[in-house]
C-alpha cells in the first residue's frame, strides 16, 4: 500500500566543490529520448498543477513575504498561465474565494525498485485511489513497490542559471559569487544545446531560494529555473540501471500520469537528464 507522507526535513551542510564540470549529453539518462511532443505535454501538465500549488503556498505561508508563492507565480508566468488564473488561485488560498472545482490533496509516495533505486513521487489529486493505482501501475514496469526511502533524500532549493552574456567569467568567479550569496553546492554543466551550451546549477537551503534568485538576478545572471526538490544524499546514490529496460518504460509511464507533479530518484546524474531536456 502506498503512503501519503509529510516530507521529512533534515539539516546537512554540503561542501562546495573546487570545480565540477559535467557533460549532460554523456549521462546514462540519455537513454530516455527527449521527444518534443512529450516535453510539451510535461510543460502543459506542470502549468495545470501550478494553480493548485499557488493556492497551497498561500494557505501555508500567506500572500506576503512568501518565497514559495513567489517561486510558483514566477514559474506560472514563464509557462504562460494567465494572470486571472494566478489571481484566483491566490484568492482561494487566502480564503477570499470559494473553489469552483474539486478539492485537491497533495500526496507523496515512496517506492523502491531493483538495484536500490528509490523513488519519491509528488502528486496532487482529487481521487487518491485513482492516483495511487496509476503510479503503482507505472512503476510496476520497473518492479518498484512501496517502501520507505525518504531518509535517502534532503529537500533543497535548486537554481539553474546562465553565464553572463557580456562577461568573460571563469567558474572560479561564479564559485565566489555562489559562496557569497549562501550556496551550499554549485557545478558547471555543459549541455547539448546550441542556444544554451552551458549552465550553472546551485543548491541551497530551501528557505533561502528566493533570496538567492534575487541576488543572482541583481548581479546580472539570467535564471533558467528554480525549484525546491528532493536531492538524494551522496551516500545513497546508485548507478543508472542501464541493463533494465523496464526503468525507461516506468519513467515514460510516470510522465503520463496527469496527477503526478514531480518525481525524484537517487540515481547518479539524475539532474543532468533534466537539464538536457
UniProtKB/TrEMBL annotation:
Gene3D superfamilies: 1.10.10.200, 3.30.70.980. It is found in: Mitochondrion. Its main location: mitochondrion. Pfam families: TACO1_YebC_N, Transcrip_reg. GO terms for biological process: mitochondrial translation. Residues 105-267 form the TACO1/YebC-like second and third domain. Belongs to the TACO1 family. This is Uncharacterized protein. It comes from Spathaspora passalidarum (strain NRRL Y-27907 / 11-Y1). The lineage of its organism: Eukaryota, Fungi, Dikarya, Ascomycota, Saccharomycotina.
Amino acid at each position: 500500500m502506498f503512503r501519503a507522507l509529510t516530507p521529512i526535513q533534515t539539516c546537512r551542510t554540503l561542501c562546495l566543490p573546487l570545480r565540477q564540470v559535467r557533460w549532460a549529453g554523456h549521462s546514462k539518462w540519455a537513454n530516455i529520448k527527449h521527444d518534443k511532443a512529450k516535453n510539451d505535454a510535461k510543460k502543459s501538465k506542470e502549468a495545470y498543477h501550478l494553480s493548485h500549488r499557488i493556492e497551497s503556498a498561500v494557505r501555508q505561508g500567506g500572500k506576503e513575504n512568501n518565497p514559495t508563492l513567489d517561486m510558483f507565480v514566477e514559474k506560472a508566468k514563464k509557462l504562460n498561465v494567465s494572470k486571472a488564473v494566478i489571481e484566483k488561485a491566490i484568492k482561494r488560498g487566502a480564503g477570499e474565494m470559494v473553489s469552483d472545482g474539486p478539492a485537491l490533496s497533495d500526496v507523496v509516495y515512496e517506492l523502491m525498485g531493483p538495484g536500490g533505486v528509490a523513488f519519491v513521487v509528488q502528486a496532487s489529486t482529487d481521487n487518491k485511489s485513482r492516483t495511487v493505482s496509476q503510479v503503482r501501475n507505472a512503476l510496476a514496469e520497473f518492479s518498484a513497490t512501496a517502501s520507505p526511502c525518504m531518509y535517502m533524500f534532503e529537500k533543497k532549493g535548486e537554481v539553474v542559471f546562465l553565464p553572463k552574456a557580456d562577461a568573460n567569467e571563469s567558474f572560479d568567479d561564479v564559485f565566489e559569487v555562489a559562496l557569497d550569496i549562501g550556496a551550499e553546492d554549485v557545478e558547471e554543466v555543459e549541455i547539448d544545446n546550441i542556444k544554451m551550451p552551458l549552465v550553472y546549477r546551485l543548491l541551497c537551503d530551501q528557505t533561502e531560494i528566493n533570496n538567492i534568485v534575487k541576488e543572482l538576478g541583481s548581479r546580472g545572471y539570467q535564471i533558467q529555473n528554480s525549484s525546491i526538490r528532493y536531492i538524494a544524499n551522496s551516500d545513497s546514490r546508485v548507478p543508472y540501471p542501464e541493463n533494465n529496460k523496464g526503468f525507461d518504460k516506468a519513467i515514460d509511464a510516470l510522465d503520463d500520469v496527469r496527477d503526478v507533479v514531480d518525481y525524484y530518484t537517487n540515481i547518479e546524474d539524475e539532474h543532468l537528464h533534466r537539464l538536457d531536456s
